[in-house]
Every structure is written in C-alpha cells, then in structure tokens.
Amino acid sequence: MPERVEPQPAVQGPASLAPRIVLAFDFGHRRIGVACGDTVSRTAAPLDAIPAGSGGPRWEMIDALVREWQPAIAVVGLPYNVDDSDSAMTREAREFAAELERRCVLKVALVDERYSSREAEARLKSARRSGLRRRRVVKADVDAAAACVILERWFSEDT
Questions:
Q1: How far apart are CA 147 and CA 26, in angstroms?
Q2: CB neighbour class for 13 (10 Å; exposed up to 12, middle 13-18, buried from 19)
Q3: Can you give the pTM of this predicted structure?
Q4: What distance in Å separates the CA atoms of residue 12 and residue 49, rounded to the nearest whole number?
Q5: pLDDT per residue over 58-88, tens digit each?
Q6: What are phi and psi of 81, to 5 degrees?
Q7: 104 alpha-carbon distance from chain centroid
Q8: Is the pLDDT assigned to residue 10 strictly greater than 70?
Q9: How does strand 107-112 pair with strand 73-78?
Q10: Which end of the chain is more exposed for a tag (fewer CB within 10 A), N or C?
Q11: Cα Rg for the chain, rounded, in angstroms?
C-alpha cells in the first residue's frame, strides 16, 4: 500500500499575500523533472529528475519531495500537439496529475508545457557557453530545467 502524504493546512488570507511553496513536474516516460518555487519571489529552481519506467513514476521519491518541501500546490505540464490537440502523453500527464492530487492530497494546476524541454535545453547550453555552467548538459538536467519553465509559465498565468 503506498504511503499517503498528510494534507497541508489551508493557506489563510488572499493568495497574493500568503507565501506558498509550489512544486512543478515535467512528466515523462523515463524521467519526471521537478522544480520548486514560491509565490513571493515567483522564481523557480530545478530540484531533480525522478526516474520513471514501465512500473510508472517512483512515487516514493515524489512522496519524499512533497514531505520535504510541503507545497501548497503542484503544477504539472501538459504536452499538447502543435495544433492544440491532446496527445497520448497529454492523457498520461493528466493521469499523473490526478494521482499526485489523490496521493498527496494536494491541489494540482495544469499548464501547457509545449516546447518547455527545448527552451530548458537552450538555456542550459547558453549557460554552459557563457561559462556560468561547467558541467555538460544531460537529459536529467533538461527535465528539471523544463519543470522550471513550466513553473515560470504558471507564475506568469497566476496573476
């Protein structure tokens, strides 16, 4: 039986005044990128890329991140097709979001994540060219950075 993460207390007062921690997820078949941010600074930082496989996400790792960060909300990226239609991955990302909401008793917001991985990879490669980043860019880094892009999009939509 999977461990259930206890719900967080409701935030009191207007959402714009009460600081909230937010976790963002870039769902994928091999890895799920994770980023963290807060509603005060409205910035995002990459945390990790959680392995996924034929058995699905490593829920124990996701549960541990939720316990550690105690977010008020989670944001999950939805991969739409170029023509705005759903893809098979869109359905799977929605299923992941629903399971995250159920398991962690957490509000989950969905954000269009089209091209977030390309944007994340471009940012990381640019940082490496400029000398701000020394390590080579690997896929796990791109996934976590894509979760940052997703979270930044949510911040820009959540006015």
A1: 5
A2: exposed
A3: 0.82
A4: 32
A5: 999 999 999 999 999 999 999 998 899 998 8
A6: -75, 165
A7: 14
A8: no
A9: parallel
A10: N
A11: 15
